[in-house]
Amino acid sequence: MKRALVLVLLVLTASCSTGTPEAGPDTSPTVSLPPENPGPGDHATAFLDGEGKVRGYVVHAPPSYTPDKTYPLVLVFHGSPGTPEQMATMTRMNDVADANDFLVVYPRSFSNTELVAALLDHLGPTWNVDPQRIHVAGFSRGGTLVYQLAVAMPERFGSVAPVSASYNGNISLSQPLSLITFQGGSDSLRVSWSTTNGNWDAGAGCSDESVTTISLLNGPTNVSSKTCADGTEHVVYSIGGMGHVWPVDASELIWEFFADHPLA
Q: Which helix (H) or strand (E) holds 235?
């Protein structure tokens, strides 16, 4: 009887050892990314950052997009709270891209410069980005990130456009960079405009201001233009009646500025 019991235990032990092992605490789950098939239209996709985390973004490619040529790229950062989809609706940048043959990318909840650098490294070969014509724009908190990117990696951008955004840090540019911004006289951030603009002027070596007055949002707008280091520009649209918004027609003006200021 005892011998039979031992044989049964041996059989059970052998059968258990030949089964598929269960995943232990050190087993890494398989990361599933959405497909990324470059082509015309809208693409909600993602990539893995340096820490292996999934980072989402939305790409809009113009109808003319083909893998046989390179394209300018405009990154557009949303505020907080906010989403890429809301930024596409608010800015209507996709319409401007379709008319002028460039790519627009709306990152989802990006908050630091290292992550943006990783995204650029991914987008370049994947979407045939022209490295001389990469530009960045952002609204509110996304605009503050634009200032941070300008300070951290000016060598990667032709020009930048923070909208309804402030920046109180010191600005020291390792490479000259052109900037266009839109600031509202009725914005809750209006008390910071003088500091923000002064910091940029000091860091970018700007002087020789000229001011013209135009009409935007059915009201007067002062457009200040300063010449900065190596022929770069600092252009400020001061819109008296504007609150904390992305103004109508800003996207067209931003693209015209970007097109005139590629990476030197």
A: strand 233-239
Tell me the pLDDT tens digit for each residue of 203-261.
999 999 999 999 998 889 999 999 999 999 999 999 999 999 999 999 999 999 999 99
Q: Which CATH class is domain 36-260?
A: alpha beta
CB distance 164 to 190 below 8 Å = no
Nearest to 73 by CA among 112, 28, 131, 30: 131
Q: Residue 12: what residue type?
A: L
Q: Distance between CA atoms of 78 and 85, rounded to whole angstroms?
A: 9
Take residue 21 and report the two structure tokens written for it.
């092992």
Nearest 5°: the CA angle 73, 74, 76 is 145
For the chain, give every domain's residue range.
36-260
* pLDDT value at residue 11: 36
d(CA 121, CA 110): 15
Q: Among 105, 108, 45, which residue's Cα sits nearest to residue 79? A: 108
